[in-house]
What does this fold into?
Amino acid sequence: MAIGIVTGIPGVGKTTVLGKVEELLSKRGVRYKIMNYGDYMLRRALEGNYVKDRDQIRKLPLNIQKELQLQAAKAMYDEAQALGEGGVGLVDTHAVVRTPQGYLPGLPKHIIEILGPNVIFLIEAPPALILERQKRDQGRSRLDYSEESVIEEVMQFARSFAVASATLVGASVKIVINREGSPEEAAAEVVKVLTGG
Ligand code: AP5
It folds into this structure.
């Protein structure tokens, strides 16, 4: 089984790209599971009455974010294992999360060791385009990521955090550009890396 962790700054389009990855894997008859880390954390955060929506998660006290992060990783690991030989597990998440208390590693040692990925993808796009995508995506509240200088800083931190996490488990780090209007191109690159063709 191959595990890929797909990271990218909020609004870069990783969930959109993963939608296209899903289409490609289905067409090829590959057994796969795409797991959105935020969904797994949100489910538990709602059960605990900590938040009303996913954009409040990163503003929670750090100890609660870390507990939700751990519970989510364990649940995703179990689901990925169930795919068995030849399956592909994909985790939609963040190498780093910008919180009011500072940068929180999205994939610290105890989490990355649970997930055990083969590759960590960094989905990237020019900061100005990320801002435009955020503005078009009205249903979400990403005001804490809505300045070009902040986006640039987070992208730099994300690369450093991704390398640090990958080093702990011997995973590779692959940068994939999500070009404007062509998320399928980025998806094809992700599938190629994961399946070798
Ligand atoms: P998460 O669920 O990942 O939310 P997010 O960060 O806002 O990311 P999204 O998935 O909503 O945005 P996206 O980048 O995938 O963009 P989208 O495809 O929607 O995380 C929620 C929260 O969970 C986090 O804030 C954090 O608190 C917590 N969390 C998650 N992982 C964690 C971890 N490991 N540790 C701790 N906490 C964690 O696209 C955006 C827009 O762009 C759309 O309108 C789309 O149509 C458009 N678009 C996309 N691609 C293109 C393209 N190529 N051309 C033109 N438009 C495009």
Summary: The chain has seven helices and seven strands. The beta strands are 2-7, 32-36, 88-93, 96-99, 102-105, 119-124, 172-177. The chain has a mean pLDDT of 96. The pocket of BIS(adenosine)-5'-pentaphosphate is lined by residues 8, 10-16, 36-38, 41, 54, 57-58, 65, 69, 92-94, 97, 106-107, 133, 136-137, 140, 142, 178-183 (CB under 6 Å).
